[in-house]
Amino acid sequence: MALEYRVGILAALIIAGGIATAAISHAHEGHDLGIKVQIPLILTPVEKAGKEVYDAKCAACHGKKMEGTHKGPSLIPYDRAHHPDGYIARAIRYGSKQHHWNFGDMAPVEGITEEEIGNIITYVREIQAFNAEL
Prior knowledge:
Layout: H1 3-29, H2 45-57, H3 59-62, H4 85-94, H5 114-132
């Protein structure tokens, strides 16, 4: 193989890798609203209750399907190992300092009950698990 051809292939791979990394980074930050999220057709009663509260109190920032918006990151890249249920509950109750997103601090969710927080977490975990299988 000619040296120019090898260098060209290597450059293309580096550029493609950079683009892929940038796309993942932007999707993680919610800047790329092209994240495709599927919602299961059948939800348990607790998941449905969580969806109702999520839609009312979380979707404005995290997106109707948790895909992220210009106000908040997608919740889909996360799993229990990254943010355990207790972390999510604390973030909902007390807010969260900006740490790996560029949207500023998350404000506490006002007027929410412990049952609603539990329902939101159940719903979020179902959507994360469902999309991890796709």
